[in-house]
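Hi all, posting the design record for the shared folder.

TITLE: backbone redesign
STEP: 1 of 1
STRUCTURE INPUT:
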């Protein structure tokens, strides 16, 4: 994912600013991740393991919660035999 996402962003939005900062969660905290970002000329802002995430991470929770609810609803609808796209 980390390899494809910056490329897709560049295709969609155009060239990224020089030394753009990429914010990632603790799961991406590795030497390999930092090297990939550096190869692309991006700065890594990775939440460190064992330390609280930055306050801006609270806004992300809303997106993750919504995605989770949508996935659960889709699963329940499939259990009830409701075809995709019905009721939208």
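Okay, here is what came back for every position:
SEQUENCE:
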């Amino acid at each position: 994912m980390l390899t494809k996402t910056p490329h897709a962003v560049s295709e969609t939005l155009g060239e990224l600013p020089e030394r753009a900062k990429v914010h990632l969660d603790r799961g991406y905290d590795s030497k390999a991740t930092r090297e990939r970002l550096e190869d692309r000329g991006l700065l890594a802002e990775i939440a460190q393991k064992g330390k609280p995430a930055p306050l801006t991470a609270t806004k992300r929770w809303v997106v993750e919660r919504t995605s989770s609810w949508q996935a659960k609803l889709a699963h329940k609808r499939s259990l009830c035999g409701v075809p995709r796209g019905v009721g939208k």
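COMMENT: The chain has one domain: 4-79.
Let me know if anyone wants the other runs.
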